[in-house]
């Protein structure tokens, strides 16, 4: 199991990151998922917090392979436990802290509901095996709520963690950046027109 002091074999980001969104993985178990999520965080410049206990060492070959050489572009912070993470979050100045927003199949609000995200939000995703701990659900309910990514549960039990993080991050960024987004008209797909 990885501790907060262990980030061996991975050179981490020293570059600036976004301050309007943060991803938090609580007790991730599969190194390939965490590596893929780190790559998404590198692509979006969103900081990544890993909350233990982790189901792998941070020098795991599968973790590094899934993140490829993008680890140097990711701002990663490791916390020993959910309680340690929550204490860290509470110690941030209230005006800069943002909300805790959980993702769970038990969420009451869709991940893409209008106004679901605000600048400064911390997106919490639980373990592939057991989801988020009960106290995380309570903390999120009290601050930012719990989001649900709809799926057809008759055919699929759940989404892969890295897919869920990608869906959540890009929807949150779309909503946060919506007013400032520029759309390239040349790139926008045209339907129903013949050239």
Automatic annotation (TrEMBL):
Q: Which residues form the tRNA/rRNA methyltransferase SpoU type domain?
A: 21-170
- Keyword field: Cytoplasm, Methyltransferase, S-adenosyl-L-methionine, Transferase, tRNA processing
Instruction: Supply the InterPro entries for this chain.
Output: Alpha/beta_knot_MTases, SpoU_MeTrfase, TrmL, tRNA_m1G_MTases_N
Lineage top rank: taxon: Eukaryota
The GO terms describing molecular function are:
RNA binding; RNA methyltransferase activity
GO BP annotations, alphabetical order: wobble position ribose methylation
Indicate yes or no for the key word Methyltransferase.
yes
The name of this protein is tRNA/rRNA methyltransferase SpoU type domain-containing protein
Q: Which organism is it from?
A: Bathycoccus prasinos
**Lineage, top ranks:** Eukaryota, Viridiplantae, Chlorophyta, Mamiellophyceae, Mamiellales
